[in-house]
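In pairs, describe these two lines:
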Amino acid sequence: MTEKELNTPTSVNQLINVSDTIINGETVNSVDARELHSFLKSKQDFSTWVKAKVTNNPFFEENQDFILLHNIMEQNGSGGHNKKDYALTQDTAKKVSMAEQTDRGNEARDYFLLMEKKAKGLEKTPRLNQNEIQCNMIALKYTVEILKPSPASLIEMTKILYTDLGLKTNLLPNYAENVKIVLSATELLKRNECELKVRAFNSLLIDQGYLEEKTRPSSGGKIKSFKALTEKGLAYGQNDASPQNKLEIQPHYFEDSFMDLYRIITGE
């Protein structure tokens, strides 16, 4: 059974509820035995079925693999009798389903296996405490103030951080920057058949205050440098998040005003 199939109206998860129950002093995923019996469509009545499959099964132990929930007096024409309900651990419910050897049993087994897989996936997902999340948010705030990324890059950086922290990103907006075309200096110098190479171009930008060198710590205690547009340079481009490293940005330039910038710094 796939995750997609679990979302269909007739799927097993619509008929068998998995809930939290305290068994043997621990909170575990559990299944109501009557719900499982109903889904499996066993030909045996519930009382006979639960005794054969669970309570009298030598491989299952009460208060470890299942628990008795409650007794309710149920009235009928011949008087009253005790109605016993049981909660099975998810693992017990899976084994009982497998023992049915029917299509319904296989469907329930696949469902419980998928639930186990999801639970294990959640356990492996690292979760940071509140202080760690707050520190990372503060770090992002100061990174934005220093690097001055474009709105689209800011959203991308935030999505990356949220993902690392295990936070949801569905509330973040999708930003489409379609007003101006932005490209690298290397590409624009080539398209406009400029004489300057990118190294000389960057040097002039730095000398005239449009570009600046920034640094970040790297592995092995090393320091790595990268370039970013200054407030002055942001009139002609934007700082975009680097695809190589989320702690870096890359300057890109507006195509329609690139040659204006080029003439300013070269004096042409």
